[in-house]
Amino acid sequence: MSKKKIIFATKNKDKMKEIKAVLGDSFDVMSMEDAGISADIIEDGKTFEENALKKAVEIMEMSGEIVLADDSGLEIDFLNKEPGIYSARYMGENTPYSIKNNKIIEIMKDVPDEKRTARFVCVIAAALPKPYNKKLTSRGTIEGIIGYEIQGENGFGYDPIFYLPEKNCTTAQLTMEDKNKISHRGRALRLMKKELENIFIK
Questions:
Q1: What pLDDT was estimated at residue 58?
Q2: Is the preceding omega at residue 129 within 30 degrees of 0, hence cis?
Q3: Burial letters for 162-178: b for 16+ Cβ neighbours within 10 Å, e otherwise?
Q4: Which residues are part of the catalytic machinery?
Q5: What is the Cα gyration radius of the chain?
Q6: What is the domain partition of the chain in residue ranges?
Q7: Right CATH number for 4-200 from 3.40.50.880, 3.40.190.10, 3.40.50.620, 3.90.950.10?
Q8: Nearest to residue 120, comparing CAs of 12, 15, 2?
């Protein structure tokens, strides 16, 4: 039986590598670019769930295909859970993460370990067209602290400043395989994978 086709509403090639590593054995996953879809969805929701669902539903309506989308971000307790849902647009839409990461380290340079707590959150949303007519969401989180310096080359985004005390490294110092086992996106993807397999793979 051929794999069910799924479009993942992202143009981020790093993110697609993680997604395919988790879903690729069960589904034929393609990016918007692979599917020939060009759209900029305005993320104006108040929660990760609202933003992820909006992206999934709009691309599903455009394509008529099963669509997954994610919204993810970094919540830093000391900064009242900022940047949160604004993680990608924090300090400006096109500001490089190297600048964002250095700025956060600077803001928190005198903050003690116990107040540096943070978490990555990822919500995966699925929009299934007829005959399924379903909308699903799954959420994954990973707890850590904000590091004192940028470390690691393997991740992207805020990975180089997100330190895991139990691993004694940042998420940017993990291999992709190890990161997918414990990451917020890996956890949310595995939950969604189970839900989709229950629908499609009887």
A1: 95
A2: no
A3: bbbeeeebbbbbbeeee
A4: 71
A5: 17
A6: 4-200
A7: 3.90.950.10
A8: 15
